[in-house]
TrEMBL record:
Residues 162-223 form the ANTAR domain. This is ANTAR domain-containing protein. Keywords: Kinase, Transcription, Transcription regulation, Transferase. It holds the Pfam family GAF_2. GO terms for molecular function: kinase activity; RNA binding. It comes from Rhodococcus opacus. InterPro entries: ANTAR, CheY-like_superfamily, GAF, GAF-like_dom_sf, GAF_ANTAR, WH-like_DNA-bd_sf. It comes from the Bacteria.
Length: 226
């Protein structure tokens, strides 16, 4: 990578990092990543993120072109393709010319049929039973070289961090909501049975253990039944 290219990449990454640091939704953050990918890649490239749940459910996120959903749907139907292989098995999957690609012949034929000739996919670290990949497609063969691969790996890290941050925020919101529900249920038990907070919490815990039900669910049932 030339010095000027490295400076351009560093500048773009810094701008992306600043844009992702503010209060934005997950979709907005991921769209910023895929838009930046396209900006750094050859002309007429398109990008998107594929999330795979349970090995069966496919979700296309933040696509820069409608083609991404069509290509991901084809991979789901065929059970093969670069995005799936990257999400499940490999860190980086690249095809320089899909017209002669032996790894996924059926998908390659589908992609070539809509004008896509090369692809590059990066595995994303996710959790909660999900796998993911950042995916790029181009309308020309040999569109992605070492410089594009290096930039893609950095942007894949940004996408993975955005997914991790969103998951953490969701867990925190859930924890706060559960705490509030349990507190409300405790108050109702304290008032009804004239007991203190410790005894009320012990009652909720006992019900949770005896019914093998989460404490927050038991608390919500207490509130609903009053």
């Amino acid at each position: 990578m030339s010095d000027s290219s490295a400076r351009d990449l560093s500048r773009t990454m810094a701008e992306l990092a600043r844009s992702l640091s503010g209060p934005r939704s997950l979709d907005e953050r991921l769209r910023a990543v895929t838009a930046t990918v396209v900006e750094l890649m050859p002309p007429k490239a398109c990008a998107g993120i594929l999330l795979v749940s349970g090995g069966k459910r496919f979700e296309t996120v933040a696509p820069t072109s409608e083609l991404l959903q069509k290509l991901d749907h084809a991979q789901q139907q065929l059970g093969q393709g670069p995005c799936v292989e990257a999400a499940v098995n490999n860190l980086v999957v690249r095809s320089d010319d899909l017209r002669s690609e032996p790894r996924w012949p059926q998908f390659a034929a589908t992609a070539v049929g809509v004008g896509i000739l090369s692809s590059m996919s990066f595995q994303l670290y996710t959790a909660d039973g999900k796998m993911g990949s950042l995916n790029l497609f181009a309308f020309s063969a040999h569109a992605f070289g070492p410089e594009e691969e290096a930039a893609g790996e950095v942007l894949a890290t940004h996408a993975a961090l955005a997914l991790t941050a969103a998951r953490t925020e969701e867990q925190l919101r859930s924890a706060v909501a559960s705490r509030d529900v349990i507190g409300q249920a405790k108050g109702m038990l304290m008032e009804r049975f004239d007991i203190d907070g410790i005894r009320a919490f012990e009652l909720l815990t006992k019900l949770s253990q005896e019914t093998n039900t989460r404490l927050s669910v038991i608390a919500q049932q207490v509130i609903d039944r009053r």
